[in-house]
Amino acid sequence: MSMPTVEMTGLGKRYRRTFALRDVSLRAGVGVTGLLGPNGAGKTTLLRIAATVLTPDLGAAYLFGLSPHSDDTRRHIRRQLGYLPQDVGIHRFFTAFEFVDYVAILKEMAHTRKRHQEVRRVLGLVGLADLAGRRVHTLSGGARRRLALAQALLGDPALLILDEPTAGLDPEQRLLFRELLSRLGEDRTVLLSSHHSDDLAALCGHIVVLREGRTVFAGPPAELTATARGRVWTSGTRDPGAMLAWRTGEGAYRNVGDPPPGVDFVAPQLEDAYLLLVRSP
Ligand SMILES: Nc1ncnc2c1ncn2[C@@H]1O[C@H](COP(=O)(O)OP(=O)(O)O)[C@@H](O)[C@H]1O
Ligand SMILES: [Mg+2]
Fold first, then answer.
1. How far, in Å, is the centroid of ligand 2 from the Cα of 257?
2. Run of H or E residues at 274
3. In whole angstroms, what is the distance from residue 78 CA to residue 52 CA?
């Protein structure tokens, strides 16, 4: 990797007695990097540090080779990044257009005509061009999530930080998002968190799995999936060695866990590997 857009080393962050991050390191360059982990694993904390919203207690974060310590470098970094927080507060009585235009003003886009053009561009990217005049409180949850993404795309930033961008979207919207994110990841750095392991498997060149603030895996998705080889098998009844098992539509049990000898293994999925990682003692 040439100079990474995001370089974090030995990050630690503590809230009173909770260690949200312990010694986490991450490098991300052009392409899509995904964060996976159960609720409370530290994903949002890590993304907030990357977005320069939060300062770590330990370790260092560099964005575009700069440390966000001074007002100057922070401003320089923020001009090149778009951030979609996990929970975006959008004033209900704004229209979709007004909301994105408001964020664009905060992003120092002073020229009205050019700004409005840019607002229309990002609304088009997320498929909301036709709903630009609708008030936010009349939009569906999925449309609101896409609206929140639109503001992160303003100014075509070189770094996109997206906290659960596909949460609350229906399958069709998720696939459209997938297409958009993969396109965006072609020539910029996208760092995102998701609970949808299939989205991450499809999009990411690099996945980091967090558990209780620690990195338990970092590498390409195929490598993560491979860690579950020999741990997924089928049988006629639920296997006692299974951590998880269910009866499939075809009537056989699909087991994940510690197999007894002589079973029929099946190819693992990324979510099998994820489950084994976060559930192992
Ligand atoms: N502002 C805060 N005050 C106290 N505890 C927090 C705060 N933010 C996060 N935490 C705690 O830090 C841990 C990591 O949280 P978070 O980064 O939100 O994880 P995730 O996004 O993976 O669900 C959790 O135990 C959470 O309760
Ligand atoms: Mg979170």
1. 27
2. helix 270-279
3. 8
Question: What is the number of alpha carbons within 13 Å of residue 89 lying toward its C-beta?
Answer: 0
pLDDT digits (tens, 9 = 90+) for 185-221: 999 999 999 988 989 999 999 999 999 999 999 999 9
Handedness of CA 46, 48, 51, 52 (dihedral sign): negative
Q: Which atom of ligand 1 is nearest to the CA of 163?
A: 21
User: Relative to the alpha carbon of 40, which ligand is closest?
Assistant: 1
Burial 76-91 (b: 16+ CB within 10 A, else e): ebbebbbbbbeebebe
Mutate to test the pocket of ligand 1, among 15, 16, 55 (most ligand atoms within 8 A of CB): 15
Q: What is the pTM of this model?
A: 0.94
Residues with CB under 6 A from ligand 1: 15, 18, 20, 37, 39-45
Domains and CATH numbers, the chain: 1-80+159-218 (3.40.50.300), 86-156 (no CATH), 227-279 (no CATH)
Cα of 58 from ligand 1 centre, angstroms: 16
pLDDT tens-digit map of 53-75: 999 999 999 999 999 989 999 99
